[in-house]
Predict the structure.
Amino acid sequence: GEDVEQSLFLSVREGDSSVINCTYTDSSSTYLYWYKQEPGAGLQLLTYIFSNMDMKQDQRLTVLLNKKDKHLSLRIADTQTGDSAIYFCAGSRGSQGNLIFGKGTKLSVKP
Amino acid sequence: GAGVSQSPSNKVTEKGKDVELRCDPISGHTALYWYRQSLGQGLEFLIYFQGNSAPDKSGLPSDRFSAERTGGSVSTLTIQRTQQEDSAVYLCASSIAGTGLQPQHFGDGTRLSIL
């Protein structure tokens, strides 16, 4: 079945760029997603990329997809303390689209 | 517009009791998903509803878990004879269509604690 892997922690300084990486095993995932979770809250959809795209940019967020290597990354430019959260990578599975999540990367932003 | 609404936000109950968790999806969304988030297992898919079709229950961990969706809208997840390992955050999500081609929007979850 699908497996999604992420590094567990990332620490950056305010103003720097953050890059969160993800690898997945199921090449049939139609969409790949990035969700953000703040303490005590649900999952906030940040962005998503269709599997036939290489890159998607949305304000401070850039998603890169290397389908050959099954590697997905999320770059956050000019990282702010409010970006501190857990970031989940997820792939959709099958025709119904239930999501397979990575374990999440905890991003800590130091002032 | 209103997002996915879940209630209660927190639930504490004794082992062996039954619990019901409610999800009110975004209006017009035909697909509804339940997930469970626990420290040991991360985020796991539980069950999926699409319109009037039979639900996909393949993620339910045991027969103590069941869910229904009435009128194609509100869904209730029921856990019978709760066990301590059921303690987790239960998240509900909805999407316009359950085809994998539309993003899922999540509620804030119900934090379930079994004493």
